[in-house]
Amino acid sequence: MNFFEVVRFSLRGLSANKLRSALTMLGILIGVAAVILLVAVGNGSAKAISDRIEALGTNTITVMSTGRGGSSSTALTKEMADALVDAELAPDVKSVSPVVSSSSATMTYEGSDHSVATFVGTTPSWFAASTTPVGKGTAFSADDVDQGRRVVVIGQTVAEELFPGVDPIDKQVTVGGALFTIVGVLQEKSSTGFNDANDTAVAPLTAVQQVLTGYGALTSIIVEAADPDKVDAAQSEVSTILNQKLDVAASSASTPYRIQNASSLLETQTETADTFTTLLGAVAAISLLVGGIGITNIMLVTVTERTREIGIRKALGAPRRVILTQFLIEASLLSVLGGALGVAAALIGSQFEIVGVKPVIVPSSIGYAVGVSIAIGLFFGGLPAARAARLRPIDALRYE
Amino acid sequence: MSKPVLQVTDLTKIYGQGEATVHALRGVSATVHRGDYVAIMGSSGSGKSTLMNILGALDIPTSGRYLLDGVDVSKLSDGQLALARNRLIGFIFQSFNLIPRTTALANVELPLAYAGVKPKERRRRAMEALDVVGLAGRADHEPNQLSGGQQQRVAVARALVTEPALLLADEPTGNLDSKSTDDVLQVFDDLSTAGRTIVIITHEDEVGARAKRLIRLVDGSIVTDVRQSPIHLPPVGAQHKAQGRATVGGRHTL
């Protein structure tokens, strides 16, 4: 009796109860597809986050003040920013951009107005440091900053809101009672989540301080390192200079400012995303387990229902091994077919965006899900199969 | 004479323990030689089914020796028992015990499949066996499309397809009407005429009368063992052989 023959017996056994077999397979299918797809969604969102963070620039450091209010002793000032540009003390710093930002600026153009989510005042180096290139028109120059000229570069959302179908370059808008001339439009940035990265406007630091924020503390200082590998060196140089300026003892654990760099941000975000992915995977794994229990249940029912048949087969000389193999194959076929269909379903499902996230299939999750489903088939199917094979023919035949 | 097909010595079988002990067999000894056609008769509870199950290697005796074709069955392992059931015994049950949703041909092929016979050869031999019982025309019918008598004849074909040393039938006509009983018994007569060794269990006198040898069992012991016709001649029932063949051949179209 060869293996192929046993497979044929198993197929006949499965096809005798098509609906039952199909429903059992559906259980495994859903389990496998859920594992693969949910892990892919988790992975996809992690990837989207890391893409966004990398878009911020991996060689930039952001210095932010932790002090509340306008306390002058802890505030970041333009002087500090200037002090960071020091070839000797900070050789790894490429550029420094002091930033003030306002979230309550309303831009008006010919009677229509738009509330700009973030109105940034900075220096020209900011465009490179924050990887926010200008798409149309030009950025403002260092001269514009020195002179406090009221020029502005607006984001895509602002351009669409205020200038639908009109070229915004050289148009004049009113912000905080002052006229600003639009010199450029930022390139569209991909943005996910609630914050629209395109709902922004960038103007010279001096102009913004004059019109909107006043000459107080800076919101942050963006420092660009000379090289992505030198971010850590640049960071320590920056903190040394700032400690000096702010009279912080070298041994002091707390500083009145906070330094963030993209890679540390990336790390935290990736950790969060990994937790998220694990959680999703665990939920999906439970459904796979439930599918496995479904197989056990069906195999137990099948064995019980076919006890007489097993008795007949044994009376006709079927060895224990053949009976065991037959039922094992039946269970394995259910799980393997279900698993394969589940993989197919997951691959098809991953072509679509799910809750705003483009799933990115993790190849190992396919192997894992299919492996587990086969193991479930063999293990949970093995139990009833072993029971069937152990039956004494006389007991099996007497079974009603 | 050659070695006996079946030889049992002092066979006992006890069910249960303590006060509930039932002595189903109390020392049964018998020898069946090649070509014999033995009917074992007894009333309900006489132990004949127990004896049958032991002879068919489906059950094991509490004590005693059972030689099947010279092999001591009690010493066989599980795998060897399966082999013995496959090669040495053809079992026919009262309730037919065909595998449901499986064609007559596939049912007859089954023991050959377990014996490892190649599909082509298997098909040929299964068709031959179905032809012997007059059901070659119903090869692709499933059990629920066949009458009781036809199902039992398929079961007989399945039992004899492996050319076993011994055909064992447990009340083969118990579930059949008189016409089907005739059909099935005719098949047994033909097989006996062809030299097959048959042991049949029954409580019907009509069935017992056609065998060459009649053993009566009462309360787990043999009370009479009568030879009704010589072992080397066709059984009494086969005297209408030519006519019977025609009947079997004709009825399968019903």
TrEMBL record, chain A:
MacB-like periplasmic core domain mapped to chain residues: 21-240
InterPro entries reported in the protein's UniProt record: ABC3_permease_C, MacB_PCD, Macrolide_Exporter_MacB
GO molecular function, one term: transmembrane transporter activity
Spans through the membrane: 21-42, 279-301, 322-348, 360-383
Keyword match Membrane: yes
Residue ranges of every copy of the ABC3 transporter permease C-terminal domain listed in the record: 282-391
GO cellular component: plasma membrane
Keyword Transmembrane helix: yes
Topology of the protein relative to the lipid bilayer: Multi-pass membrane protein
Keywords assigned by UniProt, alphabetized: Cell membrane, Membrane, Transmembrane, Transmembrane helix
Location of this chain's protein in the cell: Cell membrane
Main location group: membrane
Family label: Belongs to the ABC-4 integral membrane protein family.
PANTHER family: ABC TRANSPORTER PERMEASE YTRF, MEMBRANE COMPONENT OF TRANSPORTER-RELATED
Protein name per the record: Putative ABC transport system permease protein
High-level lineage: Bacteria, Bacillati, Actinomycetota, Actinomycetes, Micromonosporales
From TrEMBL, chain B:
GO MF entries: ATP binding; ATP hydrolysis activity; transmembrane transporter activity
PROSITE patterns hit by this protein: ABC_TRANSPORTER_1, ABC_TRANSPORTER_2
UniProt GO cellular component terms: membrane protein complex; plasma membrane
Residue span(s) of domain ABC transporter: 6-244
Classification via Pfam families: ABC_tran
InterPro entries: AAA+_ATPase (IPR003593), ABC_transporter-like_ATP-bd (IPR003439), ABC_transporter-like_CS (IPR017871), ABC_transpr_LolD-like (IPR015854), MacB-like_ATP-bd (IPR017911), P-loop_NTPase (IPR027417)
Protein keywords: ATP-binding, Nucleotide-binding, Transport
Region described as Disordered: 233-254
CDD domains in UniProt: ABC_MJ0796_LolCDE_FtsE
Coiled-coil blocks: none
Name of the protein described by the UniProt record: Putative ABC transport system ATP-binding protein
Organism: Actinoplanes philippinensis
Organism ancestry: Bacteria, Bacillati, Actinomycetota, Actinomycetes, Micromonosporales
